[in-house]
Amino acid sequence: MSENKTRRGFLGSLAATGLTAGVGAGAAYAKVDAPIRTSNLSSVGNEYVDPRKVLMYECTRKEIRERYASGKLKAAIIPTGSTEQHNEHLAIVMDIAGSLLMSQQAALKLWPQVIVTTPLPLGICPYWMKRQGTITLREETFINVVYDICCSVKTHGIDTILIMNGHGGNGKALKENAPKFASKLGINIEACSYWESISEEQKKEFTETGIVAGHADEFETSIALAAYPERVHRTTYEGTEPYQWNVDQEDLDRIGYYLADWDTPEWDRQSFEDSKLATAEKGEKIIAHAVNWIAEKLQGMIG
Ligand SMILES: [Zn+2]
After folding, report:
1. Phi-psi region of 262 (alpha: psi -120 to 50; beta: other; left: phi over 0)
2. Which of 27, 40, 100, 278 could form a disulfide with 222 if both were Cys (CB 3.0 to 4.6 A apart)?
3. Which of 115, 40, 50, 60 is nearest to 302 (CA)?
4. Three-class secondary structure of residue 180 per DSSP
5. Could you tell me the distance, in angstroms and rounded to a whole number, from the CA of residue 72 to the centre of ligand 1?
6. How many angstroms separate the alpha carbon of residue 261 from the centre of ligand 1?
7. Closest by alpha carbon to 42, among 98, 114, 108?
8. Contact 226, 10 (CB under 8 A)
9. pLDDT the model gives residue 46
10. Cα(232) to centroid(ligand 1), Å
């Protein structure tokens, strides 16, 4: 069985249990091929729900208006991520694809109470700028954009927001600022990263290395193999040299570039080696676990 078939089977089986369903990362990012259309209808309780309809940006204004008017829409999820290098084998989109996937699946599970906003695919990753393909925001820019999204959502009448993060570098800033946003806007706002669903003691249950979340290693590569295997490119490690530049360049100052002391050539190589332990089966287990955790957390916030 090909990885693609495994993936469809996995998402289809979630649909069959009424847990959730979908095309993984959503139409905004995923290449949706013909056979996957069969999983575009999902059973949620007694209803059939098109998984795109939990994505705010896939709806028409009429559909959104009617959902607000129904009184059933209680909360929004804002997926956040990053556009950054993910070693030799994994696509740069990984972090936002991961948080969007988890957000969409959790929203389907809580249908019709939850909607997912447009994801924020850029985050705080100045330490990866030495790898081409990375785009970083300054913390101030990132936080201001997230705040403006919260303002927009609140303005239209939603008073519960979960910021669902998929990039480690955003975590601290989001945790610090979510309570400030909440008190400024007078609504309920929390922020978490989906791997918080896995406790310290559980890390070995989900990965052989025990490293959660890591970076482009066993954990993330497993999620990708389960949900969007076309984003994993098995390749050999070429011991790539980081990009060299003039460190006095003012552009780098503007984005807050710095060298991370943990990012050694050995660490990079080890992450790549660990990614070979990744399997779609591990990814399926992680996704199902994280989605349940997010849905429970959000249901608790809704009350
Ligand atoms: Zn990542």
Report:
1. alpha
2. 278
3. 115
4. helix
5. 34
6. 18
7. 108
8. yes
9. 61
10. 13
Task: Kindly give the distance from the C-alpha atom of residue 84 to the centroid of ligand 1, in angstroms, as a whole number.
Answer: 8
Q: How many domains is the chain partitioned into structurally?
A: 1
Low-confidence ranges of the chain (pLDDT < 70): 1-47, 247
Domain CATH for 49? 3.40.50.10310
3-class state of residue 88 by DSSP: coil
Q: Are 91 and 136 in contact (CB under 8 A)?
A: no
167 CA distance to ligand 1 middle (Å): 6
Cis preceding linkage at 35, omega within 30: no
Q: What is the pLDDT of residue 44?
A: 60
- Bin 256: left if φ > 0, else alpha if -120 < ψ < 50, else beta: left
pLDDT tens, residue by residue, 274-300? 999 999 999 999 999 999 999 999 999
43 sits in which H/E element: strand 42-44
- Strands 42-44, 47-49: pairing kind: antiparallel
Residue 161: enclosing H or E segment and its boundaries? strand 160-165
Nearest to 242 by CA among 220, 210, 264: 264
Residue 295 Cα, ligand 1 centroid: separation in angstroms? 22
Dist. CA 50 → ligand 1 center (Å):
28
**pLDDT tens for each residue of 205-217:** 999 999 999 999 9
Tell me if 141 sits within 8 A of 75, measured CB to CB.
no
Tokens for 242? 């980081």
Helix (H), strand (E), coil (C) string for 226-280: HHCHHHECCCCCCCCCCCCCCCCCHHHHHHCCCCCCCCCHHHHHHHHHHHCCCCH
d(CA 47, CA 228): 26
Distance of CA 7 to the CA centre of its chain: 17
Which domain covers residue 136, as residue numbers? 3-302
Q: Return residues with CB closer than 5 A to ligand 1 (ion).
A: 94-95
Identify which of 159, 174, 198, 199 has the alpha carbon closest to the alpha carbon of residue 123.
174
